[in-house]
Each structure stands twice: as C-alpha cells, then as structure tokens.
Amino acid sequence: MKRIITFLIILCAPGYGMILPSSAYAAENLIMRGTLVDNPCFIRPGDELIKLDFEEVIDKYLYRYKRTPSRSLKIHLEDCDISVFKEVKVSFQGTENTSLPGLLRLDPGSAASGIAIGIENTDGSALSINKPAPAIKLQAGNMVLAFQAYVQGEPNAIINKRIGHGQFTATATFVLNYL
Questions:
Q1: Residues 52, 31 contacting (CB under 8 angstroms)
Q2: SS3 (DSSP) at 52
Q3: Which of 18, 21, 88, 112 has its CA 20 to 30 Å from the CA of residue 48?
Q4: How far apart are CA 82 and CA 64, in angstroms?
Q5: Which residues contact 158 (CB under 8 A, 6 or more apart)?
Q6: pLDDT digit string (tens) for 6-44?
Q7: Nearest to 46 by CA among 91, 71, 76
C-alpha cells in the first residue's frame, strides 16, 4: 500500500484585506504542492546514484557467449522500521531495448551499439525493465537489496558481427514500492 498525501497551501499576508479595498485583491498566484510519504527505510547516502562500471567488454566474448558475466548491483537500506510496511518491490525504470525486450537500451550519445544492459536477481532470474521485481521481505535495521547487471549483444548484431565499439552508458531509475 502506498501512502501518499497531497497537500495544497495558499499563502496570504495577515491583515491584507483590511488595508486595501475589496476591488484591489489580487488573484491567487502562489500555489505550493508536494507529496508526503511514509517510507520505512532510508536509502544509504551515496546509493541515490549508483554507477556500475563494466570496464572493457570484449566483442569476441559477446559473439561467443552472447552476454558478459554479471556484476553486482546493490541498494543499501538503512534504519528500516517494519511496523507499517513488511515488503518492498523494486522496479528499474528506463528505456527498453527494442531488439532485446526487457533489457535497458543504451543512452543516446553512446558510441557503442548492438548491445543492451540486463538486470537480474542474484539467482540469475531475469528482471524486466519497467516491471517490478518480486516482493522482498524487509528486515528491521539495515539491509541490502542485491541484484546483478550484465551486457548482452543484440541478436542481429551478434549474427552479423556488427557490435559497435566505444564507450556507452545506460540509465535506469530504481523505484521502491513498499507494501
């Protein structure tokens, strides 16, 4: 269950109406909005932006095995209070690769081509971009949400030996939905 409370505040100066005649009132011109949420855990400082470096990926390795070995991807949660929420579902949101559905497309401006980024659970089961992972039970105190990421060659790029060389980036946003 998501707890979201939206509020609207309109500010006015006290006594404003007593000084000016009623015809001088200005239209409402200041609206403040926000969302108040109940999150049982804090994301460890520094984990708001996680950078995962695949270093050098050898194209011959992709031609042979289709994907790289997985690299660890961890989200650290701190000071979890499980009195309200007991589970969390993580989803990785981003632009999906059209040749490899469920995998993350490279960002525009990447020199490399013919590859995508996959995300999986630590047991190797695939996680699709823009779809929530199975719920994970929250633990009181500190805990780690562990996943893995890998580089995979697009099928046509592998068959035609057309993986483009160069640097690449891919961007996803992780979303925690507490249940």
A1: no
A2: coil
A3: 112
A4: 46
A5: 62, 63, 66, 114
A6: 333 333 334 444 444 555 566 777 878 887 777 899 999
A7: 76
* Residue the block writes with tokens 């020199």: 111
Rounded Cα distance between 18 and 165, Å, is 71
Amino acid letter, residue 162 = R
Query: Of 71, 39, 32, 79, which is closest to residue 55 (Cα–Cα)?
Result: 71
Q: What percent of the chain has pLDDT over 70?
A: 84
- CB-based contact 42:78 (threshold 8 Å): yes
The values of phi and psi at residue 138, to 5°, are -75, 145
With beta carbons less than 8 A apart as the criterion, state whether 115 and 65 touch. no
How many residues are given for the chain? Answer: 179
Q: What is the pTM of this model?
A: 0.79
List pLDDT tens digits, range 135-150.
Answer: 999 999 999 999 999 9
pLDDT for res 24: 59
